[in-house]
């Protein structure tokens, strides 16, 4: 069993039989071959209906880490012979110990197909020449995301990270008009252009489409406006995924900046309250932690896996683009949430305020030097080049108080103080750990 062609545009009732058949095969596969889940479920049989999945306990990343440490290299949730694995990836490790990910040939093909839907939804197609600037060194974002770009029919240039001078020259020489990277990577390019390519501005490179993923930031209207002003390109949230589950299964479209869920034929999504674990309906305006179950996965199938991502559902009716999956925004990660006097603060919320100040570069950190509780939100914000500091810290603190409700303790840093990263940028620094 494989993906359903055009599943992202199929009504739910048309996918119902496929999803039921896929789960029937998958539940048997997991129950028979995953020691991890048999142990977690106390040998209880998984339910026959997807609607009854909440009868099973949740699984999470901490459990997988323990399983891999005890049963290296893939953990005892590997449900296929090692010989069936044709590719090994590793997670970025941004939120903890890096994990080894095994894919069968079928797993890899499905991963590419689902991710291709997302890249196409964001506007990439056969007429484009796209340079892929994510780390190819084992990370899912490298080769697997490269394959999703190829699914659109675009000409894909596998560049990776590093050698930024060569990247600038390649973009100009090859006539590249699209880039796939993290939202923070254009800042790296801007610095290199300013320092080593006198007389050239980012707009001169001719990039028209930015396909972003791997970290938050694209939801911010100020970020999109800056990309258009500085680069002359449309910024699209094209690559939302959870490495342990699928590298890319949601993206925006030209009609709506919310992420569209595009993997209903291969995954079953749930929302839960991250504190009580109670199921939350997937309905407009509701918020909860995303929980995913593989419907088709050979090597490392996951059932009721807590992603740690907090979602807010925007809409459930079909989009004008034709995609039928629910639309959502990622509010933040449960492990990046900082509680200030009972208010839940996420980095994406802080970013929206920081980016509204032209005198700031957009780079910031939330630096926590002591364990909770917190009565203030400590923020380090970097100045834009040549910006004046008079009253700026106080103005930022006032705006955070007005928009987020939290009292902020703002420290301004000189331009260029905070590192620009080629990979994921960690915004919350817990110095006490």
UniProtKB/TrEMBL annotation:
It comes from [Roseibacterium] beibuensis. Residues 342-429 form the AMP-dependent ligase C-terminal domain. SUPFAM superfamilies: Acetyl-CoA synthetase-like (SSF56801). Pfam families: AMP-binding_C_2. The lineage of its organism: Bacteria, Pseudomonadati, Pseudomonadota, Alphaproteobacteria, Rhodobacterales. This is AMP-binding protein.
